[in-house]
Amino acid sequence: MSAPLLSARGVTKRFGGRIACRDVSFDLWPGEVLGIVGESGSGKTTLLNCLAGRLLPDGGSVAYETQSAGTVDVHHLSEARRRLLARTEWGFVNQDARDGLRMGVSAGANIGERLMAVGARHYGDIRREAVDWMARVEIDADRLDDRPTTYSGGMRQRLQIARNLVSKPRLVFMDEPTGGLDVSVQARILDLLRGLVEGLHLSAVLVTHDLGVARLLTHRLMVMQGGAVVEQGLTDQVLDDPQDAYTQMLVASILPV
Amino acid sequence: MTSSQPALRVCGLAKSFTVHAQGGLSLPVLCDVSLSVSPGECLALVGPSGAGKSTLLRSLYGNYRADSGSIRVRQDNIWTELVGAEPRTVLDVRHRTMGFVSQFLRVIPRVSAVDVVAEPLLRRGTDADEARRRAEFLLGMLGIPARLWSLPPATFSGGEQQRVNIARSLIVDYPILLLDEPTASLDAANRDGVVELIRQRRDAGAAIVGIFHDTYVRDAVATRLHEVLPPAQPAGVSP
Amino acid sequence: MPDTNIQATAYNYAYLDEQTKRMIRRAILKAVAVPGYQVPFGGREMPLPYGWGTGGIQVTAAIIGRDDTLKVIDQGADDTTNAVSIRRFFAKVAEVATTTHTEEATVIQTRHRVPETPLTDGQILVFQVPIPEPLRMLEPRETETRTLHALSEYGVMQVSLYESIARHGRIAKTYNYPVMVNGRYIMSPSPIPKFDNPKLDRSAALQLYGAGREKRIYAVPPHTPVKSLDFDDHPFEIETWTECCALCGSKESFLDEMIVDDTGKRLFVCSDTDYCESRR
């Protein structure tokens, strides 16, 4: 617990005259899962993309504590180093698995790519690792050589998770990882993510509009409205004792089961 | 830690709820609450319904955000302030020092009862087999039939869920335990099992704060009572 | 002959104007300086269709001089239409001597083969390239493939080899087999059989690659390491035949399979006609 893994300071992003996210600051500590909640258009995904170095903010900075090279400013890194970081120490789980997978190659190749990208050159080893990860995300090993185009939505999402985690990242960005999936499929992925995040001591930033997902997966919440963070704190505290008017409205809007 | 020194100390704690949907209406619940609990003590919160016993307990756990005052917990032999603390500080205290038994289990989809119970131990780095063994021991002690251990508790009865919840909270030897009606929906036999567990923890040196609606349970476990009074109504607001 | 005079006055030496040749030479120099890197160039319209060697011809035109001796092969053969046409084209517009003998040639323009006879210092091998980008089939965006090359992000290339083993039990690619040049750039060796890949490694000859449609030139300078990609447990291997050449008896050369009659009788003969004839 010596230093935060990720530190955002005053992150601001505009699209033309519209401010997508405004002056966002926080520290993410090792092992923490931070949830970003809010309705569509509140700036959650824009913020996530700024944090992950996929978008250049108009103001503010994002610092990341690397494994061995000290603290780096994500947006001042060379493209080479940022991309290296993105495929080694980071993961990014897209809402639509098709954006995060190579749909034209087999599941095994999808999982193995990150290993090969950092120099793995033993086919048998890569394949064993892929089989291991298929099991960890509960996909039958006999689907290893099938392309993700033949997979269901839930399986694709699990494959995307395996593809990201195989390189043992320290920080994973997730954009609505269960969005657009059936409820039963969602539950399985949530359970899986929960186990993996805890088992691998991952840190994560998770964007979701589903407060149930947030309660299950995150330690801390940031509530966004109109591009600004209106409330942040411990997840159960924000959800059980919301302070801000918008958060109270959001929490009150959950349909009881 | 010597038993003379408190494990938990609360000073001047205040908590109110502001309801924005009703024009920012402020509902004060706790006002200037002070208490302290030492290892081996079990403090029972008493008071009429609606007095804020549950709110107090949740505020102690950090589940509710206190307005002002101080909640300090002894951890690693130093006082840690929880009011206004960083989330990670509160989480650290929850992981290592302070356990909470609520009335209801928050069901996690697809996770078996034994894994639900073992999880807090695993999180602290206990070996997986050892954690499962202790989870099964506790489930057995609380009268959950072995055939249910590998099933997710979502389909269990209310009483079974509550006992799973108790097992999950008691699997770690937390120095401080907060209990919110731990026996609320249990029959006499199961209630006695829970009472026995709480007494064991108390006698082993845990500092316990609890709400026990059942006077039989309260008499069996509490060493001291703390009365929680309803706040004075603010001027201009009629009940 | 009157015909030749008309040609000579109507066109600049070696068909292309001098400015164009300079531009191509600058591209070649850069390509030689950065082995395996694809240098864009302002490709010109040539008097033959794309796919027939427009890239190779422009490179040859830019480097050829009256002292050169030109050999042109198509799939190893000196006598196919394409090879004959290109050879005659340069004999006419560049007034060079032509040959079919590998050892005599100073410039060899080739489609899809490397001669069997080892090349020597001072020789230049000009390849005709249809698709210069080895990552194209895996990554359709040009901006992205350029970035991948720039950052040496070559995991995706290995993915394609992995996929081949997963599907076929071995790396099934038999031609246009990707190579790593000088430990830095992954390069398409053009659609030569992988049998020829080892000949590219530390070759004494200068290798120039021209892609006319895509307007790219790249090069491998003499004696540069060229490694065929593979896995530790699936190492790169070249084809072998149990048969030998029906004409010259060679067991070492790349063989073409021919059906010689209506009953399906098959013969194997050397793909490199000059090599084959020299042994008979």
What does this structure look like?
Helix content of chain A is 38%, strand content 25%. Chain A contains ten helices and ten strands. Chain A is globular and about 55 Å long. In chain B, the strands form two sheets. Chain B has a five-stranded parallel beta sheet with strand order 6-7-8-3-9, with helices on both faces. A four-stranded antiparallel beta sheet of chain B has the order 2-1-4-5, covered by helices on one side. In chain B, a hairpin with a 2-residue loop joins strand 4 and strand 5 (78-81). Chain C contains eight helices and twelve strands. In chain C, helix 2 (18-33) crosses helix 3 (54-63). Chain C is globular, with a radius of gyration of 19 Å. The model of chain C has no long low-confidence stretch (mean pLDDT 94). Chains in contact: A-B, A-C. Chain A binds chain B through residues 1, 29, 32, 187-188, 190-191, 194, 198, 215-216, 219-220, 233-234, 236-237, 240-241, 243-245, 248-249, 252, and chain B through 17-21, 58, 62-65, 87-88, 90-91, 106, 108-111, 122-123.
Summarize the structure.
The complex is a heterotrimer of chains A (257), B (239) and C (280). Chain A has 257 residues and is of the alpha/beta class.
Blueprint of the fold:
The complex is a heterotrimer of chains A (257), B (239) and C (280).
Chain A: E1 6-15, E2 18-28, E3 33-37, H1 44-51, E4 59-65, E5 71-73, H2 79-88, E6 90-93, H3 97-100, H4 107-117, H5 123-136, H6 153-165, E7 171-175, H7 183-199, E8 203-208, H8 211-217, E9 220-225, E10 228-234, H9 235-240, H10 245-252
Parallel strand pairs in A: 3-8, 3-9, 6-7, 7-8
Antiparallel strand pairs in A: 1-2, 1-4, 4-5, 9-10
Helix pairs in contact in A: 4-5, 4-6, 6-7
Chain B: E1 8-19, E2 25-37, E3 42-46, H1 53-61, E4 68-75, E5 78-81, H2 87-96, E6 98-101, H3 113-123, H4 128-141, H5 158-170, E7 176-180, H6 188-203, E8 207-211, H7 215-221, E9 224-227
Parallel strand pairs in B: 3-8, 3-9, 6-7, 7-8
Antiparallel strand pairs in B: 1-2, 1-4, 4-5
Helix pairs in contact in B: 3-4, 3-5
Chain C: H1 2-10, H2 18-33, E1 39-40, H3 54-63, E2 69-74, H4 81-93, E3 97-98, E4 107-111, E5 124-128, H5 142-150, H6 155-168, E6 179-181, E7 185-187, H7 197-200, E8 206-211, E9 216-220, E10 226-228, E11 255-259, E12 266-270, H8 273-279
Parallel strand pairs in C: 2-3, 2-4, 4-5, 5-8
Antiparallel strand pairs in C: 1-9, 6-7, 6-10, 8-9, 11-12
Helix pairs in contact in C: 2-3
